[in-house]
Design a protein that fits this description.
Distance between the termini: 40 Å
Shape: elongated
Number of helices: 3
Largest sheet: 7 strands, mixed
CATH class of the largest domain: Alpha Beta
Helix content: 10-25%
Length: 174
Amino acid sequence: MEQTIRTLACLNSHSFVAKLDEVRLRNGRISDRIKIDHPQAVAVIPLVDPEHVLMVKQYRYALGFETWEIPAGKMDQGEDELTCGQRELMEETGYQAAKLTHLLSYYPAIGYSDEIIHIYLAPQVIKSVDQVDEDEISAVEVVALSKIKDMIRRGEIMDGKTILGISLLSGALD
């Protein structure tokens, strides 16, 4: 086990805390570690029908371009997974789900973050409102599952939660 000696630097934002810590390794050597304390998140695979998924397009600042993804977002303080999934689905797509089924939870960046993403399936979604969060989402589109699988294979979709969710849904992309 590694032991934290001291925190060398800390960055606090509204959605996470990043720390640079000095640690003692199990062999006694001293090293640095970066740790990001991040809220849990929920991602939803929204099915319009068994062969069509609702996808969102949004700009990702760290990458410098827009990506196609399944809807997802961070859990608010005190919020449960189902409430977060329904809220994010509505905010990002204008759709709601009659039911959400938990598929998997995972750590997307285990080497430096404690974030957990919970992936849910929404087997049937219906349009509820026309307005979506335009600060985040530039497009909402119903996409054939076969097209999404092709986009993943061609490297056009490289978002981990989307690849994992669609792979689970599709039996590891058939």
